[in-house]
């Protein structure tokens, strides 16, 4: 019975992947990809990774928004020739076959760090081992990742023409929002914000955490902007920029303080680990929410001349 | 066949499909989309490894799970950068076409 559910999920996942690759219209392709992301989130639940499922569902929606916004740019281009395509298909089949072989021949029992990850949880006063990995054992990964997100934003901003790069980005649809969108943009954000704070707070002990919360807050902000209820912020705004770098900067500063107290980079002082982690989570959530929303909005632009 | 093995095979197929899309598709948007499919396959493989390593009362090994969460956010950032590059390319092409059509000196905007 359970295997049947898995089989149905896998079949749906693969059909949606094929559909989004082969759909004739770019728009259908992007919508198929959004459906793929939602089914993938269900697969993550089946694999016992609820934290990942939440992240996939939340971030997948933002990715879908980006791809949908770009569908009008799709230009017809020449397909590679048939022999070349056949050769490529053979190569990709070889890669997939190799990976499938690895899956079938995986060592049993599988290597696992689960026991090592659970053991210090009590000392950290955390209940969610994934949060512990992200902010205690492998905090360096998380720090570098937030820096990567900041770099992506800088890269996006640098695509603006010289004259416009400090200006406000263009918000799709904000000029003529539909009435239902305006209603939703008034009703949803309070609920979304409460849910986001809840997800952030329980992240210490249950599935949830800063990425999921930040994505939700970013989505709420985008909803308000796209309904035209608030103007998009000017990208040259100092306070906005301080919000963007504040979280990573605090993370880095506390990491450097680790040299003084426990004696190594990104090590938290004993007994204070929980408050430090909560502080970083809150600061990172704020920065990531602003970052993700600004990334979706894109570079600064001038209003189109009427 | 167990559930994780099934998902592992699906992940292998997704990587293959995505790779083919990246190499063989002509439109940049579809390439970005295919790259995301390939990434999903790789993440899923991590998920299968995590599930197989379930121990200590956890449903899965938290270390690969945390890596996947990091990976999903980085993949989003990369996708956004690619989409914005495509947008800028389309803008530049439109400007060039307009300039060529009016045969006036190319003005900015």
TrEMBL record, chain A:
Give every MrpA C-terminal/MbhD domain span: 12-70
- Where would you find the membrane-spanning parts of this chain? 52-74, 86-104, 143-162, 183-204, 210-230, 242-265, 277-297
Q: Which UniProt keywords apply?
A: Cell membrane, Membrane, Transmembrane, Transmembrane helix
Q: Does the keyword Glycosyltransferase apply?
A: no
Query: Ranges for the Na+/H+ antiporter MnhB subunit-related protein domain?
Result: 181-296
Q: What is this protein called?
A: DUF4040 domain-containing protein
Q: Which domain of life is it from?
A: Bacteria
Membrane topology designation = Multi-pass membrane protein
What is the native source organism of this protein? Ancylobacter koreensis
Which protein family is it in? Belongs to the CPA3 antiporters (TC 2.A.63) subunit B family.
Q: Where does the record place it? A: Cell membrane
From TrEMBL, chain B:
Q: Which GO terms describe its molecular function?
A: oxidoreductase activity
Q: Which UniProt keywords apply?
A: Cell membrane, Membrane, Oxidoreductase, Transmembrane, Transmembrane helix
| Parts of the chain that traverse the membrane | 6-26, 33-54, 66-86
Q: Does the keyword Transmembrane apply?
A: yes
Q: Which domain of life is it from?
A: Bacteria
Q: How does it sit in the membrane?
A: Multi-pass membrane protein
Stated EC number for the protein is 1.6.5.11
- Cellular location of this protein? Cell membrane
Q: Which InterPro entries match?
A: CPA3_antiporter_subunitC, NUOK/Mnh_C1-like
Question: What does the sequence similarity comment in the record state about its family?
Answer: Belongs to the CPA3 antiporters (TC 2.A.63) subunit C family.
Q: How is this protein named in the record?
A: NADH-quinone oxidoreductase subunit K
Q: Organism source for this protein?
A: Ancylobacter koreensis
């Amino acid at each position: 019975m359970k295997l049947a559910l898995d089989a149905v999920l896998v079949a749906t996942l693969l059909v949606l992947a094929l559909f989004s690759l082969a759909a004739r219209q770019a728009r259908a392709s992007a919508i198929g990809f959004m459906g793929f992301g939602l089914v993938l989130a269900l697969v993550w639940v089946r694999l016992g990774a609820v934290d990942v499922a939440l992240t996939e569902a939340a971030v997948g929606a933002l990715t879908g928004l980006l791809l949908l916004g770009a569908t009008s740019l799709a230009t017809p281009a020449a397909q590679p020739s048939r022999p070349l395509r056949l050769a490529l298909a053979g190569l990709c089949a070889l890669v997939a076959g190799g990976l499938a072989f690895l899956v079938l021949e995986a060592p049993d029992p599988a290597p696992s760090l689960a026991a090592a990850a659970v053991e210090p949880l009590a000392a950290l006063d955390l209940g969610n081992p994934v949060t512990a990995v992200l902010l205690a054992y492998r905090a360096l990964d998380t720090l570098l990742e937030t820096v990567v997100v900041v770099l992506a934003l800088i890269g996006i901003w640098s695509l603006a023409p010289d004259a416009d790069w400090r200006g406000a980005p263009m918000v799709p649809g904000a000029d003529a929002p539909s009435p239902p969108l305006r209603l939703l943009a008034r009703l949803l954000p309070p609920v979304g914000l409460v849910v986001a704070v809840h997800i952030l707070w329980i992240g210490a002990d249950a599935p949830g955490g800063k990425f999921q919360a930040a994505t939700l807050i970013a989505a709420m902000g985008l909803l308000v902007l796209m309904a035209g209820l608030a103007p998009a912020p000017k990208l040259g705004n100092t306070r906005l920029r301080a919000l963007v770098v504040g979280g990573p900067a605090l993370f880095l500063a506390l990491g450097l303080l680790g040299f003084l107290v426990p004696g190594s980079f990104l090590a938290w002082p004993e007994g204070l680990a929980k408050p430090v982690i909560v502080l970083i989570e809150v600061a990172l959530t704020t920065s990531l929410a602003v970052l993700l929303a600004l990334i979706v909005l894109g570079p600064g632009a001038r209003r189109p001349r009427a | 066949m167990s559930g994780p093995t099934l998902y592992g095979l699906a992940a292998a197929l997704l990587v293959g499909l995505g790779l083919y899309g990246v190499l063989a598709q002509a439109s940049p948007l579809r390439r970005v989309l295919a790259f995301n499919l390939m990434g999903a396959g790789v993440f899923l493989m991590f998920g299968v490894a995590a599930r197989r390593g379930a121990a200590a009362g956890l449903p899965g090994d938290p270390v690969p799970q945390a890596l996947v969460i990091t990976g999903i956010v980085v993949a989003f950032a990369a996708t956004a950068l690619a989409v914005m590059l495509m947008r800028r390319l389309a803008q530049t092409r439109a400007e060039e076409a307009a300039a060529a059509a009016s045969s006036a000196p190319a003005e900015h905007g």
